[in-house]
Amino acid sequence: MGYDNKYSGAVVVDLETAPLSDAADYIESVAAPSNYKDPVKIAAYAKEKQAETVDRASLDPDLCRIVCLGYQFEHMEVVHVIPAENELHEQNALTLFWREVASKRLIGFNILGFDALVLLRRSLYLNVKAPRLQVDRFKHPQIIDLMDELSFGRQERRHGLKFYAKRFGLKVVEDGISGAQIPSLVAAGEWGQVAAHCEADVRATGLLAARLGHFRGVSEPAGVL
Q: In the predicted model, what is the mean pLDDT of residues 121-131?
């Protein structure tokens, strides 16, 4: 593939998120169905729906926070992994990240659907200066989304990172942790596992990007999924 000279080199990015501690404060109450008449059942319904929304908050750029940020540059085996146990750590991680990836092409798996949106929104909330990335559906010259490419941009054809790692025969090892488990690991203070999982996703994404011709100089040490 050709490389646009405007963007010198590439960097693979992945992040882990968890709900804001006060996410529930921003969630509007949900009205119970019209056939609900019992006030107790109506209140229980509203509480249940709010809890479900909070559980999904780690996937909402406005209701989540970054708990770990990982990235890898071309021609480098080192993966930079920055756990963020609080907002100050998160702010520092974002400041360092944007400074180091300036003018780089960003590569990720579902980066247009999630990672880039969270990076930009959390930078805005935390007053961190970030570039004006184009994340429109058809205008994103600085970003390569491997999921979007492999699914031909079609929702119904999407598969996960683990699927493609296996399908392309990449040397990754299953660690039994999924992104959905990250909030509970954060709550339990298991920051080592959070960081390890983030690094593993970066390495697997890097290998996939190299297989597709977007990332250069990556060998194949086993990544962990």
A: 96
